[in-house]
Amino acid sequence: MVANIQAPADRGGAPGTDIVGVLGGMGPLATIDFMHKMVAATQAQVDQDHVPVIVSSIPQVPDRTAAFRGDGLSPLAAMVDSAQRLAAAGAGLLVIACNTAHLWFDEIEAAIGLPMIHLVDAAIADASTLAGPEGRIGLLGTDATLASGLYVNRDLRHCGHPQPHWLLPTAAEMTDLVMPGIAAVKAGELDRASGWLLAAARGLKQRGATVVVLGCTEIPLVLDDANSPLPVVDATAALARRAVAWSLARRAAAVH
Description:
Rossmann fold
């Protein structure tokens, strides 16, 4: 079961449009996976029932984790450029198909002026519902996502959820399992990635986690409810469902 899906407040966007703009390319395979999740989240009988989507998948965005560490260029200018491209093409809502990129969410939102849905809010809402009030939620993501507090420090007062009890991988698990697993997905080495990331999930379960949030867009490509030792919350699937809900709500409002 997941939390009830609410379309975000309509703060404008392109007048009358129900088009979702996807800021992707981080990485390309994760962007394709996100698009598949949007299709899966839509009840459709014919092509025309599906949600209209515009995607900007430009993989040359500087590495988000390296930028957070201070070891690389900021990705902000490249992400704003892609977001502007989506807005100019007619998108009424913007979503970012990358967890770590949400470290620059506020700056992108301010630069573009379109309504946006925060992936972390969507994931935490679903995880809190699945785990229950006493649940302990494990988190897998890049070292930048974890070190920045993108999830664990997210203020949830605006969405009415209590602060979760988080369990994180150890430093050794991050170095030996999680980051190599994410890198292997990006390199297309999915079998190797699966072994590393499953081991990290098992570590979280052994320390008491009852649910695990897949807080990196690469991780759901090799870890899911079918093979995970814990029930999973796929952050990008949570975002995809809410993007679909927004578009369908705009479409229904235009009819009436």
